[in-house]
Design a protein that fits this description.
Shape: globular
Structural class: mainly alpha
Strand content: under 5%
Helix content: 55-70%
Number of helices: 25
Order of helices and strands: HEHHEEHHHHHHHHHHHHHHHHHEHHHHH
Number of strands: 4
Largest sheet: 2 strands, antiparallel
Distance between the termini: 25 Å
Length: 513
């Protein structure tokens, strides 16, 4: 794992204390409760640190996060170690704990899986350069970057799911029972981490059995690996909510959230074209508005199925499920976020299709001017994904619902006025200094350049480079021009964000970490 990539993931710390981020703090409270009180209930932490929206009322009036508990269970050992090193819970402030939970549970697993993902994509696509471009685009130009830097469950669940797939693939290459058990265990843990991974876990289990020459024994190992986590989740739900088959979303404390989750199946209703279009194309939160390269990846599913039919069908199934989810989940229930956060587990399954698409373009670029120009356009979209996702993630990854355009209406004005959050350099200096972001932004720009050079590698031509630059300019331009006008409500919300912007309002205090 190159140290430069690790630093790019570890450097930013988008932390805004005034937000009291419910999604993150509800899990952080539970991490503290598991270690300090020996219970998953967070009543004591709510009294100590304050309440927030993402809570459910369980048995005997106890409070729990309204999420699956897996990330909290995995975070408890990290907090235990930090607490022992620091000499007590009172010496571990929430902001410091949040940084390390983000780092060890979301960022580092993503980084550690990049090389196995790259090797797999290179094997299937037959093009190592295309695989390099695909995995870097995934890491820095998709939801993977955003949710690697936040203590949400989505990226951890994504890493567990793709880790399960890679373990199953390893079992195919080197038939060992341990890899099959590991693959099933990771899929089971993914469901404990995020309920919506259940259909993906089922697909992975079926895939493991289908690709195995010893299907009956593989099925037994799949059950063996997944069963402990099914028991763990059932025990938690029985203790917290009175039944192993009742989940936290049924007991949400916040009335608005409860009304959303009461519709359909935990908020899933009939698919709507408007919801799908909003979650894919809206400049406020659309996947392709931040990561247009993922559209290339979806187009790359066809050559993926052709190159490796069974793997391709699995990726196609996972993609179909998440597109159905995007069309069916209530649009307003996604919350303050950057992009459609629940689609983060889909992103690693699109790495190999993206590599297949890049490889196809690279092979055919020398055959005709049309393919040459298409390669330039693909490079421009990949670079646009990295630059836009990187800037939005670094500056403000909590886009309120009322904004109709994330980049032009909120993120760019904040960045232009010097509103950048904490980073590790500022912690070392002991004060806020916006100029410390220049190396990080330069590093992300360098990653984008590497991706462009991989996609446009020889025979490189000026027409393809020109098309790439024009595509990049057109994409960014659309995010500023083809959007609604700024509303008074948006101006008011942006003014509130600027007034309460902690890093520019206060010096970094000693003991931040």
């Amino acid at each position: 794992m190159p140290a430069g990539l690790a630093l790019l993931f570890a450097f930013p710390f988008p932390y805004f204390e005034v937000l009291h981020s419910p999604n993150e703090l509800s899990r952080l409270y539970q991490v503290r409760a598991l270690v300090d009180e020996g219970t998953p209930a967070v009543n004591a932490e709510v009294q100590r640190f304050g309440s927030m929206g993402d809570l459910s009322v369980g048995t005997r009036g106890r409070l729990f996060p309204n999420k699956a508990p897996g990330i909290s269970f995995l975070g408890a050992p990290i907090y235990f170690a930090i607490e022992r090193l620091r000499g007590g819970a009172d010496r571990v402030p929430n902001r410091a704990l949040l940084y390390f939970l983000r780092l060890f549970l979301c960022a580092l697993p993503t980084l550690l899986l990049l090389e196995p993902l790259r090797r797999h994509a290179a094997r299937v696509s037959g093009d190592g350069r295309a695989a390099d471009a695909a995995v870097l685009t995934y890491a820095f130009g998709s939801l993977a970057l955003t949710y690697s830097l936040l203590f949400f469950s989505h990226q951890l669940a994504a890493n567990l799911a793709i880790g399960s797939f890679l373990a199953i693939e390893r079992a195919r290459e080197r038939p060992r029972a341990a890899f099959e058990v590991l693959g099933a265990a990771l899929a089971g843990l993914a469901v404990v981490t995020e309920y919506t991974l259940a259909p993906v876990a089922v697909m992975l289990a079926i895939y493991a059995v289908v690709v195995s020459p010893r299907r009956l024994s593989t099925a037994g190992r799949v059950v063996l690996g997944a069963l402990p986590f099914a028991i763990l989740l059932g025990w938690y739900q029985l203790d917290a909510f009175g039944s192993p088959f009742r989940v936290s979303y049924e007991f949400v404390q916040n009335r608005t959230f409860a009304s959303w989750h009461a519709q359909g199946l935990m908020g899933l209703t009939w698919p709507k074209a408007s919801s799908l279009a909003g979650n894919l194309f809206s400049p406020a939160r659309g996947l392709f508005a931040f990561s247009p390269a993922m559209l290339i990846a979806i187009l790359g599913l066809r050559p993926y199925v052709r190159e490796s039919p069974k793997e391709g069908v699995l990726a196609l199934g996972v993609t179909a499920f998440y597109l159905f989810f995007a069309a069916s989940f209530l649009y307003q229930a996604w919350g303050w976020m950057l992009g459609p956060r629940h689609l983060a587990p889909l992103m690693p399954f699109l790495v190999t299709p993206l590599a297949c698409a890049f490889a196809l373009l690279r092979r055919r670029r020398s055959r005709s001017p049309g393919w040459n120009l298409a390669g330039g356009a693909a490079a421009g979209l990949a670079v646009g994904s990295i630059l836009v996702t990187g800037l939005c993630t670094a500056v403000y990854p909590h886009i309120p619902e009322r904004f109709s355009a994330a980049l032009s209406h909120l993120v760019w004005p904040l960045a232009a006025s010097g509103h950048f959050p904490y980073n590790l350099a500022e912690v070392a200096l002991g004060r806020v200094a916006v100029w410390t972001w220049i190396p990080w932004l330069g590093g992300v720009a360098l990653v984008a350049l590497v991706v462009a050079l991989r996609v446009l590698e020889k025979p490189r031509s000026w027409p393809s480079v020109a098309v790439g630059l024009l595509t990049l300019a057109a994409f960014v331009g659309l995010l500023f021009v083809a959007v609604p006008r700024v509303t008074p409500q948006e101006r008011s919300m942006r003014a509130w964000i600027e007034r309460t912007w902690e890093p520019t309002a206060h010096d970094v205090r000693p003991g931040l970490f």
